[in-house]
Write a structure and sequence with these properties.
Layout: E1 5-6, E2 9-10, H1 13-28, H2 36-48, H3 50-64, H4 73-93, H5 97-131, H6 147-176, H7 181-207, H8 220-234, H9 239-248
């Protein structure tokens, strides 16, 4: 959201983001206050038309006067979906109840939330420290990226990655786990597409903010992914076998 001016100074984004937390957390325990219909629509748009999804971010700013969502439905649904998919993997590949519980908890708390917190914090810091446009007029209100918005961007980017690396990978796992060149190519391509799309959506999320510039830096990891892909294929590295071996041995 745009910070308001108090005593001639701009109120910074992190403070305003913190003020959202009580309402945000309160709505988590009140499912009736969550807009599930809009959330599922947004998830669909992130997969088929991500620019449409971020156009609605601008509408949200106009109506709520903040960029970040005040509805935790997206995070809650993602947690449920990740836990469900991780349970399916555990039923298929795990050999113990306690190990399965730890794997599901790790998928939700570490892979989605903790890693997301770290990525959102890095993006929030990078955007506020280096990418904000300089105010050419002294009377202009200084704008900052809200941390909650940065986390929203991560969540938005994570959902298509979840579809590819949890759902599609699980369905294709009998093929992807073969010890063959074709399986390695398909597995590495799946991971490359998922990770590249994740960073592309990060780019769209930050470029939707009119007070940022040079947001193409969020596309730089895509170049690294494309450069690493041929080496992974030529070395017969199989991303699916490697990932599942970490979780299930």
């Amino acid at each position: 959201m745009l910070p308001t001016t108090v005593n001639g100074t701009a109120r910074r984004g992190p403070h305003r983001s913190t003020s959202l937390l009580p309402t945000y957390l309160r709505r988590i325990i009140k499912p009736k206050q969550m807009d599930l219909e809009y959330t599922f629509w947004l998830m669909l748009q992130l997969c088929i038309s991500p620019k449409t999804a971020y156009r609605h971010t601008s509408y949200h700013k106009q109506t709520k006067n903040q960029w970040a969502r005040d509805d935790p439905a997206f995070v809650v649904i993602c947690c449920v979906l990740v836990a469900t998919a991780a349970t399916a993997y555990c039923v298929t590949f795990s050999d113990g109840l306690w190990h399965s519980v730890l794997t599901v908890a790790s998928a939700v708390l570490v892979d989605f939330l903790l890693v997301g917190w770290a990525i959102a914090t890095a993006g929030w810091f990078l955007a506020n420290r280096f990418l904000r446009k300089k105010n050419v007029h002294s009377h202009a209100i200084e704008q900052h990226v809200e941390w909650m918005y940065a986390f929203d961007v991560h969540c938005n980017s994570y959902f298509p990655l979840f579809i590819l690396l949890y759902v599609v990978q699980f369905l294709l796992s009998p093929l992807l786990l073969w010890r063959s060149f074709v399986s390695a190519v398909l597995s590495n391509a799946l991971y490359a597409i998922a990770l590249a799309y994740y960073h592309y959506l990060n780019f769209l999320g930050y470029s939707a903010l009119p007070f940022l510039e040079h947001t193409e830096v969020f596309l730089w990891p895509v170049a690294g992914i494309l450069l690493a892909l041929p080496f992974a294929v030529l070395s017969s590295f199989n991303a699916t076998r490697f990932t599942l071996s970490i979780y299930f041995g």
